[in-house]
Amino acid sequence: MKRDWWKKAVVYQIYPRSFMDSNGDGIGDIGGIIEKLEYLQDLGIDVIWLSPVYRSPNVDNGYDISDYQAIMEDFGTMEEFERMLEKAHGLGIKIMMDLAVNHTSDEHPWFIESQKSGNPGNPYRDYYIWRDPKEDGGAPNNWGSSFGGSAWTYHEGRGQYYLHLFASGQPDLNWENPAVRGEVFQMMNWWCEKGVDGFRLDVISMISKVPGLPDGKMNGGLYGDGGPFYINGPRVHEYLQKMNEQVFSGYPLITVGETPGASVEDAVRYTGENAHELNMIFQFEHMEGDPDHPGKYGKWDAKEMSLPQWKRCLSKWQTGLEGKGWNSLYLSNHDRPRPVSRFGNDSPGYRACSAKMLATCLHMMKGTPYIYQGEELGMTNAYFEKLEDYRDVETLNAFEELTNKRGETPETVLGYLKRIGRDNARTPMQWDNSSNAGFTTGTPWIGVNPNFTEINARQQREDPDSVFQYYKRLIHLRHTMDVVVHGRYELLEPEDENLFVYSRTWKDEKLLVICNFTKRELPVPQQLSDRIFPDTDVVISNYLTRQDDRIRPYEATVYLIKGTGEQG
Ligand code: NOJ
Known about the structure:
This protein is α/β, with parallel strands linked by helices. The chain contains 15 helices and 22 strands.
């Protein structure tokens, strides 16, 4: 197998809790995934990114792992996991594990031991980041946690604080300790020996902290911003090179690091061919709001970018990694609202069309595309009305902090949650129009989006013009056209406020991708229509008829211009 097989692959993310429930307890499980593997084979994806299935008390839906080598009871058993892996492989689908090793659960035996270890001889004493209180008894520094509150929690027994960049149930591992690194690498090799095909590494850009853990700048909030002291920290590349040497180099894996705060230059360091670290990263820039108008409360009230800003951002990544690294392509995952609701138009008249347009815009770029479950159906935000409908720890903590400590009204904060909260994309997968969308025969752990009667997999598999069928075609194009995989990207019409236009060039082929991000019919700019001469082929379009001089509401059309590419 070619080592860079993942350059041609399309990845599908499963968030197991919300994918398919096979035993009626209202929680998705491995048995459910096994039932739906043929569905994924039909879609045509190559790899499943499996959000965490390890044993976990579920403070953060599995991103708080208490045993890396066991399966969460809600999800099933190791035997079922093995059955799933075997069946997936039989269908030609690989499985990439999602691994959170910046932190564990506070119920992990390492942490339980570490808490007890007043005794210097205890081997787990320095597995986590413990510090003495300040003289006034306060936290060792002013860092805030990503999920609200201080990043430090005091432990009576040990008489010290421990660091947690996320929830207090997610203590940060101390990567400075070689024993920690050794344990993590050994565990990863254990999974590789089991036959898994790769790793998605949760917040891997945060594993190395600046020694001394200095206070962060106060940006008008309640806590300091520790980011500069733990994002892309001083030893992160050293740790990843070791991980590569001791784990990745032994297997033909796909590896992707989740790297909040990474710039293009950082990405080259993480993913460059001679870096010997990762295959690709998830950068965050295009998913965050307008950098020139940051929200008072971070993502909750951030302003969205304009289309020209967004195009510049994505294009910077496309050109910045050309020949130097590799991009991941995504608009969606379990931490983000649904793309059709955020970047498209989820009202019934435009939903399917704009979902296909966004998919075209993303899938025709250079990199490895990721589809988050339900995106291939154009599933929309949950738009929950009441706080009781929400389950996510980040969301619930934010509500508490913004209403109680920052004085916002519950209505305002509920408005933030509806727009950008993570539970928007965590509602159960909509399989059919039977009760609970066919997800469970029990009571679902989180509400089903009531639009499942119109938006569901069964209906879309039968409809040749559905969003699902359109994703199948996009995936097929990546598998069959070299220009989609290798073509050099160029942004056209950068200042156009309505259209996203770019080309991809490979040998003697050129693709011209034109996407209308509005609900208005617009003229095609003159310099483009000159290129769309009648004998150009349409490779794919979300409209059934061709019209070259106007671009219709949310239209996406990809033209193939032959013989005008470059030899490369
Ligand atoms: C990123 C994960 O995607 C998110 O769901 C999680 O809450 C944090 N990392 C902490 O593990």
